[in-house]
Recover the amino acids of this structure.
């Protein structure tokens, strides 16, 4: 089925990178449970990916321990990027599940270093996509989510 995650870690590029570190000489940080490396197709110089070392498809299947480890390493990578590149901000992006346009089915967080003048203009793109629900629609939706 198109867009379906691979059934085993043998098909997962991130799991292969973890098994054969020679494939990823551009790693930037590591802990016992998480690993960070530069994206091969960066939006900005220093754009990094942070992954759990345990094969985890998406947010729905990540363990609390692995999510904490990934989150902690995201903070570490963010600090490293600001220190080494002189950036003044970052965007974090997680695509989780086929409905999110996730393309690699191993949970990963994009850490995209930013400056005020980098020209990336994510807010301009965002403005073309946002909806304008009524207050009543928001109340109904919040009640549904709380159930």
């Amino acid at each position: 089925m198109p867009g379906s995650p691979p059934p085993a870690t043998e098909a997962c590029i991130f799991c292969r990178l973890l098994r054969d570190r020679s494939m990823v000489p551009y790693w930037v940080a590591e802990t016992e449970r998480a690993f960070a490396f530069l994206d091969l197709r960066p939006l900005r110089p220093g754009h990094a990916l942070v992954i759990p070392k345990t094969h985890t498809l998406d947010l729905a299947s990540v363990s609390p321990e692995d999510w904490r480890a990934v989150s902690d390493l995201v903070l570490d990578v963010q600090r490293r990027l600001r220190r080494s590149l002189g950036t003044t901000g970052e965007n974090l992006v997680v695509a989780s599940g086929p409905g999110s346009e996730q393309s690699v089915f191993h949970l990963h967080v994009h850490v995209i270093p930013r400056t005020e003048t980098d020209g990336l203009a994510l807010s301009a793109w965002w403005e073309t996509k946002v909806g304008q629900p009524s207050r009543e629609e928001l109340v109904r939706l919040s009640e549904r989510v709380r159930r």
Q: What stands out?
A: The mean pLDDT is 92. Strands lie at 27-30, 34-38, 48-52, 89-93, 109-114. Helices lie at 13-19, 64-85, 122-129, 135-146. The longest helix spans residues 64-85.
